């Protein structure tokens, strides 16, 4: 029978045998796959592992600080923090089309990854959180004709876009390739990954950028980040976090009239999106209590400057998608 302990032991042995004394690079996103991967590799090869964390500026409030601190200070895993916020924002100037946004973010990610891995390198191996379902699709790897090994031609970041240049084709370390998602969670938990990461909601690679409809600006990012923080804060406080697949805020690039004190306001609406789902393929909008909706709405309108209205998305998937872009 499969046990996490046996899996970890075997994986550590395999990683050591494969990597030897070489250096391994890992693109850390803070999701459960890349975090579990980082813990596993760190256990196997310690400081031969370098994690690269690219901050594109579209993460949730306090998230980059939290992750870097957690990995670096609490678990002594080497994390290279890359602040690329301005670059990503510049790429999105004037862009409103959802696909174009994703494409530009993906390309910029590869660009930054390439530059930084040259600066920090050389590395012999790239660790990827490939899971069993990805192996079956495996369009992002080639087989090296000489060695028969899988070689990365794309970085399977959470963006899944953009090819790696020829001189940056790493050999791959993919210790999670036989696992399904629920097994990754078990492995992560068994090697000490904090529950907060093991059970966190999915978060799209392009992050808040695809939850701002229309153009992404620094002002809109700040507004959405604050609204999003309140949503999660209250959902957790009321004990609903683990019942939901996702709970988040979306900013619409329109304005409506409101009144605050004795003043007329003209500001953005925030959409509250809470869904339950098994796998993200289909989803139901969540019947969370009116009282909770009220608290979230009041806090967002009172605490987030630039927002004067909160609406609740009551569309399931299909026909809606979970995200708005
Ligand atoms: P949709 O919006 O298609 O989303 O119903 C289904 C699930 O996928 C997540 N999602 C992403 N995850 N990179 C990711 O890693 C992405 O680009 C991406 N886009 C959507 C979404 O949050 C939901 O859980």
From TrEMBL:
GO terms for molecular function: ATP binding; GMP synthase activity. Residues 2-200 form the GMPS ATP-PPase domain. The keyword Magnesium does not apply. Its EC number is 6.3.5.2. It comes from the Bacteria. It catalyses: XMP + L-glutamine + ATP + H2O = GMP + L-glutamate + AMP + diphosphate + 2 H(+). The keyword Oxidoreductase does not apply. Transmembrane segments: none annotated. Pathway: Purine metabolism; GMP biosynthesis; GMP from XMP (L-Gln route): step 1/1. ATP binds at residues 29-35. Keywords: ATP-binding, Glutamine amidotransferase, GMP biosynthesis, Ligase, Nucleotide-binding, Purine biosynthesis. One of its GO terms (cellular component) is cytosol. Homodimer. Catalyzes the synthesis of GMP from XMP. This is GMP synthase [glutamine-hydrolyzing]. The gene is guaA. The chain holds residues 191 to 515 of 515 of the full protein.
């Amino acid at each position: 029978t499969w046990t996490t302990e046996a899996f970890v032991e075997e994986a550590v042995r395999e990683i050591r045998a494969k990597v030897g004394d070489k250096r391994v690079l890992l693109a850390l996103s803070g999701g459960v796959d890349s975090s579990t991967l980082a813990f596993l590799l760190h256990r196997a090869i310690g400081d031969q592992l370098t994690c690269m964390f690219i901050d594109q500026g579209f993460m949730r409030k306090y998230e980059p600080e939290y992750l870097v601190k957690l990995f670096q200070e609490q678990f002594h895993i080497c994390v290279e923090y890359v602040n690329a916020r301005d670059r990503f924002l510049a790429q999105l100037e004037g862009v409103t089309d959802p696909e174009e946004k994703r494409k530009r973010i993906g390309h910029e990610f590869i660009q930054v990854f390439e530059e930084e891995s040259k600066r920090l390198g050389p590395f012999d191996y790239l660790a990827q959180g490939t899971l069993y379902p990805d192996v079956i699709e495996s369009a992002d790897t080639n087989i090296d004709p000489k060695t028969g090994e899988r070689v990365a031609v794309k970085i399977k970041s959470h963006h899944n876009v953009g090819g790696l240049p020829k001189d940056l084709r790493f050999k791959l370390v993919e210790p999670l390739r036989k696992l399904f998602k629920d097994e990754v969670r078990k492995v992560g938990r068994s090697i000490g990954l904090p529950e907060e990461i093991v059970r966190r909601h999915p978060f799209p690679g392009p992050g808040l950028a695809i939850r701002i409809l229309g153009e992404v600006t620094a002002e809109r990012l700040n507004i959405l980040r604050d609204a999003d923080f309140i949503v999660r804060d209250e959902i957790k406080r009321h004990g609903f976090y683990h019942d939901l697949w996702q709970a988040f805020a979306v900013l619409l690039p329109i304005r409506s009239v409101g009144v605050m004190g004795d003043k007329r306001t003209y500001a953005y609406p925030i959409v509250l999106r809470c869904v339950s789902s098994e796998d993200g393929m289909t989803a139901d909008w969540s019947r969370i209590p009116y009282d909770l909706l009220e608290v979230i709405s009041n806090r967002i309108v009172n605490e987030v400057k630039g927002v004067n209205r909160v609406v609740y998305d009551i569309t399931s998937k299909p026909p809606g998608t979970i995200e708005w872009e």
